[in-house]
Every structure is written in C-alpha cells, then in structure tokens.
Amino acid sequence: MKRIPALMLAAALLAAPATALAQATTDLSKVEGGHFTLDKSHAKVVFAITHFGFSTYYGAFPDLEGTLDFDPKAPAKSKLDVTINVKGLATANPKLDEHLNSPDFFDTAKFPTATFKTTKIEVTGATTGKITGDLTLHGVTKPVTLDASFHGGGSNPMTKAYVVGFDAKAQVKRSEFGVDKYVPYVGDEVELLISGEFDRAQ
C-alpha cells in the first residue's frame, strides 16, 4: 500500500514535462505580443567553422542581451535588438579562447561586443520568417539575414512570466568583418545557430 503514493508521485513527475510543454503554442492567433527582454540564461549563439578541412569546430557566445518588440498579428512589424559579449566567447579550450580574443581574430580589447538590429522581417510561413538586420562585428557593419522559426509562446509554469522563443540560423563570411586570420585554411564561412527565450516586460 505504501508504494501507491510513490507510484503516483513518479507518474506526476513524468507528466510534468508534458504539462509544461502544453503551456506553449505556435498558433500566433493565441500568442500575446508586447515588449520582451532576452532571458540570458536561455539564450546562446553557437558558431561552427571548418578546421583545415579535417573537422568542424564549434564554439559559442553564451553572454547575450536583447530586446524584442513582438506583434503576433503582424510579425513583420516586430523589432529585434541584440548585443553579444564577444569577449565572453567559449570553446572549452582556454588557450584558444585567449587567441580568439587577441588582435589575430576578434580583438576584443578594441571591439568587446557585437550588435544585431533588425531592418526588415519577411514572413515565410506559419512559424517561419527571414529577419534581416545590421550586424556590427569587429568594427564593421554588414547586413545579415537570419532564417528564423517561432518556437512558441505562453506562460512559463515555473516563473509565471509570459515567454516567446525562437530559433534561427545564419551564415556569415568572417573575412567581410576583417576577421580573416588563416583563411582559407580555417574556414571563411561561419555557420551560426541561435536560440533564445524572451520574457515579456512587466
């Protein structure tokens, strides 16, 4: 008899993720808009680059700040503004991190941050779009387009905050931003994988 409450508790714990997921919806007619701030603990930019043609090397920019003005009824009118702490890059290799921060690459003593500000949003599907904006990196500003997908919106069951989440992909040529050390041996084209949650400002 004593095992029944334990089994009930286990069942409740197993059901919790499904309940949490049920809080989010991709139906924009049911999503709330407003002014949002990026949840730094649930946001990251991952980069991938070829290494001498032998492998793909990965790293990340885990320290981000940003704001989003989101209109689910007219997504194309939304605005995104993000600042990346380039100096906080992480590759799990301290010596490589130090080298990437040096004048050979990002020169973060002079250019500690990068920014992305939207200039245009094109809706391409029920939950997809192209977000074009100005990326400023290493003192150079170039237009970049993100292929974005809406992950969902709803009330966070833990914090009770209203949240919207997105994923995005992009490709940039680092040489166009003056970060051209070892090109073409270390790849020029850099793949970016981006994910972030935004909490609606109270």
UniProtKB/TrEMBL annotation:
It holds the Pfam family YceI. It comes from Nitrospirillum amazonense. InterPro entries: Lipid/polyisoprenoid-bd_YceI, TTHA0802/YceI-like_sf. Keywords: Signal. Residues 1-22 form the signal peptide. It comes from the Bacteria. The keyword Signal applies. Residues 35-199 form the Lipid/polyisoprenoid-binding YceI-like domain. The keyword Signal applies. Coiled coil: none annotated. This is Polyisoprenoid-binding protein YceI.
